[in-house]
Amino acid sequence: MFKYLPVCFLIGIVLLPQTLSAKEMVGWVENARLYPGGLLIKAKIDSGATSSSINCNCVTPIKRDGEKWVRFSVMSTTGELKWYERKILHTVKIKRHFGESQQRFVVKMGICLGDVFKETEINLVDRTGLNYPLLIGRRFLEGTHTIDPGRTFMNKPRCKRAIINE
Length: 166
Known about the structure:
By secondary structure, the chain is mostly beta strands. The protein has a single domain, classed as Cathepsin D, subunit A, domain 1 (Beta Barrel), CATH 2.40.70.10. The protein has helices at 5-21, 138-141; strands at 24-27, 29-35, 39-45, 52-55, 57-64, 67-75, 81-87, 90-95, 101-113, 116-125, 134-136, 145-148. A six-stranded mixed β-barrel has the order 2-3-11-4-10-9. Strands 5-6-7 form a three-stranded antiparallel β-sheet, with no helix packed on it. Strands 1-12 form a two-stranded parallel ribbon.
């Protein structure tokens, strides 16, 4: 029984670094691209947040073919304003760190962070007073990214394929 233990242990040591290196390393702040449209935006990487959220202005609920949608604008890192219309997936009640709860619309959008593109749920919120308009939470990061909290801007968004249903 114990004669196989050293071999298993050695296999684990050999495979562990490959598993860790397979994940993309990101700093606590990165540039990302938001899809559709490929808007360049600064993002805070936050493993303490479950979900992702984005600063958006002029949030207006609308009806499209009998379904609930929302119209909103997002400003890029370079000051470009982009308007989006996205289907509302659901609303979420977020308890903020100072105790106040807030209802937010949740939509699906694409994010490119380094080489990784994922469609993900993003809640819409006014982050005007905060430094980074996009907060990327652990649902997006899980399985694909490792965070180096001492670094920033380690990777430019360079996804080769970024397709999302318009």
